[in-house]
Design brief:
Length: 66
């Protein structure tokens, strides 16, 4: 009967573990990128509207106070 090659088995386990971790890392990056791009689009739309409104309101209020 042949002896088990423990080094080969360990190497295979390590490779599987490493590939699984790499796949998880890629999924996290993809989710983060998708989340950021979606959040940025929403934030940019809100940010564009808010400063314009705030600037106009601020400009109107400043001469009144002065």
């Amino acid at each position: 009967m042949a002896k088990p090659n423990y080094q080969f088995e360990k190497r295979q386990r390590d490779l599987a573990k490493k590939s699984k971790q790499e796949e998880k890392r890629r999924q996290k990056l993809a989710a983060k990128a998708a989340g950021e791009s979606g959040a940025e689009t929403g934030d940019d739309a809100d940010a564009d509207a808010s400063p314009g409104d705030s600037a106009a309101a601020g400009a109107d209020e400043t001469p009144s106070n002065a």
